Amino acid sequence: MTLSRRDALWLGFGGVAAAVLPGTAAFAATVDELTAAFTGGATPGEGGLTLTAPEIAENGNTVPVEVSAPGAVAIMLLAAGNPEPAVATFTFGPAAAAQRAATRIRLAQTQDVIALARMGDGSVIRAQTTVKVTIGGCGG
């Protein structure tokens, strides 16, 4: 088989496009994989992490979420039912006045929102809440 220069360029562009486009199955990570990567294999505990989200969200495009974990060095937010479950990771340095963050997230459907916090001593804590979405926000 002879590969022309034009064919080689098209193959190269196809590979770059596959690597750059979001939502490809090759790059999608599950909640369990993301949790294992964040915790380093440690079993998350309960308590000390506050996750605030509405019980019912009329529109999944902008759902307000707030997390707070005094003493945390990092907090990760996950949306279990989204095509890409990783929502955000917040990292706190030693000069942070408080280990809390507030943001708005997009939810595709009714699902669990999960927060994981890595504490200063290396332990990990977890909080979870279910948000009922009446109109999905991820094109669903």
TrEMBL record:
<feature type="signal peptide">
    <location>
        <begin position="1"/>
        <end position="28"/>
    </location>
</feature>
<dbReference type="Pfam" id="PF13501">
    <property type="entry name" value="SoxY"/>
</dbReference>
<dbReference type="InterPro" id="IPR038162">
    <property type="entry name" value="SoxY_sf"/>
</dbReference>
<dbReference type="InterPro" id="IPR016568">
    <property type="entry name" value="Sulphur_oxidation_SoxY"/>
</dbReference>
<feature type="domain" description="Ig-like SoxY">
    <location>
        <begin position="37"/>
        <end position="138"/>
    </location>
</feature>
<dbReference type="InterPro" id="IPR006311">
    <property type="entry name" value="TAT_signal"/>
</dbReference>
<protein>
    <submittedName>
        <fullName>Sulfur oxidation protein SoxY</fullName>
    </submittedName>
</protein>
<dbReference type="InterPro" id="IPR032711">
    <property type="entry name" value="SoxY"/>
</dbReference>
<keyword id="KW-0732">Signal</keyword>
